[in-house]
Amino acid sequence: MLAIKNISKTFNTGTVNEKKALDNLSLTLNDGDFVTVIGGNGAGKSTLLNMIAGVFPIDCGHIYLDDKDVSLLPEHKRATFIGRVFQDPLMGTAADMAIYENLALAARRGKSRTLAWGASVKENAEYKDKLAGLGLGLEDRLTSKVGLLSGGQRQALTLLMATLKKPDLLLLDEHTAALDPLTAKKVLDLTEKLVNEHNLTTLMITHNMKDAIRIGNRLIMMYNGKIIFDVEGEEKKKLSVELLHEKFRQAAGEEFSDDRSVLI
Ligand SMILES: Nc1ncnc2c1ncn2[C@@H]1O[C@H](COP(=O)(O)OP(=O)(O)O)[C@@H](O)[C@H]1O
Ligand SMILES: [Mg+2]
């Protein structure tokens, strides 16, 4: 499904701010893998997802998706088969457009622009159905502007949009971190439901170690642009927050105390 081979990324090369964000990182996902990604601030988690999505060019190495080398493919082309949800609820949807218009855009991702774009009656019925599945009452608000929705509703809608046309890969970057705990739980439950329903290959960054242990079939921990721990299946189920802290302490040494607060 996804194969990353020896990618590196340095920002601000040759300046005092030079930072190696990814350091010769390799990772292979199997079809249907649901991987949680943890690590302290600046570990390179977001950069990893950005490299996969094509936000910045990689310095070296290759990224393969379904055996195709996508390393040089621009971001908008990769967006036709990669779904993304970010931390900021404002980023995934168009505020000035109605709920049904946002969904119609998502449904047409990667299709020719000459296709009619307004949503058909049949499509609207389908959207209503899918929105009802979110359990947020959005099915009765198809024509509401998305800008009027709460952060949690927007994240739920973004998730729906990202998975409307089954993506080859779903990338989630702390997509519940900006929400209150109750809403975060709802959006996380919805995430699991959608991922399981469509058997989506997924990378989910989270700061919450309990969630990282509970959710998905595989967990990776990053530190200094590298994967320092990769565990799956039964072994993952046996993890504890204490054990993850211990792994992190081993890798980070003295810096651990600074990062402890963000790894709850
Ligand atoms: N666009 C950018 N320009 C310059 N430096 C960046 C950029 N994106 C990330 N970095 C740096 O790369 C390192 C890894 O960042 P990031 O991937 O955002 O970490 P994480 O998501 O694990 O907190 C950090 O030191 C960060 O400051
Ligand atoms: Mg990040």
Question: Care to describe what's here?
Answer:
By secondary structure, this protein is an alpha/beta fold. The protein has a domain at 2-81 and 167-262: Rossmann fold. The chain has helices at 45-53, 75-78, 99-107, 121-132, 151-164, 181-198, 209-214, 233-237, 241-252, 256-259; strands spanning 2-11, 19-29, 34-38, 60-65, 68-69, 82-85, 169-173, 202-205, 218-223, 226-232. The chain has a 6-stranded mixed β-sheet with strand order 6-7-8-3-9-10, sandwiched between helices. Strands 2-1-4-5 form a 4-stranded antiparallel β-sheet, covered by helices on one side. 36% of the residues are buried. The mean pLDDT is 91. Adenosine-5'-diphosphate binds at residues 11-12, 19, 21, 39, 41-47.
Short description:
The chain is of the alpha/beta class and 264 residues long. It is built from 10 helices and 10 strands. The chain has helices at residues 45-53, 75-78, 99-107, 121-132, 151-164, 181-198, 209-214, 233-237, 241-252, 256-259, and strands at 2-11, 19-29, 34-38, 60-65, 68-69, 82-85, 169-173, 202-205, 218-223, 226-232.
